[in-house]
Amino acid sequence: MASLKWADALTLDLPFMDREHQAFEDSIERVDMADDAHLAFVWDDLVACTSEHFAREDLWMRSTGFPAKKAHIVQHLVVLEVMREGLVQAREGRFLQVREMARQLRSWYVKHVQTMDAALARHLRGMRFDPVTVEDVTRAESAGPASAQKPMADRAAITA
Ligand SMILES: [Fe+2]
Ligand SMILES: [Fe+2]
User: Fold this and answer.
1) I need a surface site. Which of 19, 86, 128, 130 has the fewest CB within 10 A?
2) Which CATH number do you get for residue 28?
3) Which ligand approaches the C-alpha of residue 20 most closely?
């Protein structure tokens, strides 16, 4: 019941972003449920899930010229760094510190979603932003020379 209330408070009415936040909530819930023997494993999962989510938000901010992107991206970087330190602690068996970090992370995350992410969601909604298009363009750009040559091949087919 508590996690349902938490999820309601974090809904931003932007389905692709809400889905990512739901994945984070599921992941941190697995941390809460894990015994000490599994804590490093589920924390590792949480770090991976958070890292991917932050990277996507950073991409959305950069590709749409979100005005407040600098502070938001820095906050992602700092939190991820702390979470990686938590992974080291979990692997060293410092479970109490990791559980305290999980508690603080949860409280940071609620504030972050309700302030910085809410502002980003308003910006993206206003632009009728489509994350699939941006991720496709980014994939094509990072594919390098092969995708750069495609238009040439198309041109050759037209002129043949
Ligand atoms: Fe977020
Ligand atoms: Fe964020």
Assistant:
1) 128
2) 1.20.120.50
3) 1
Residues of the chain with pLDDT under 70: 1-7, 136-138, 144-160
Which-ligand-closest: CA of 50? Answer: 1
Question: What pLDDT was estimated at residue 140?
Answer: 72
Is there a domain that residue 9 lies in? Answer: yes
Please work out, in degrees rounded to the nearest 5, the angle formed at the alpha carbon of residue 45 by the alpha carbons of 70 and 124.
35
Considering every ligand atom shown, identify the ligand nearest to the alpha carbon of residue 74 and give its number: 2
Structural domain containing residue 103: 2-129
Helices 95-112, 15-33: axis angle to 10 degrees equals 160
CA of 28 to the centre of ligand 2 (A): 16
CA of 54 to the centre of ligand 2 (A): 6
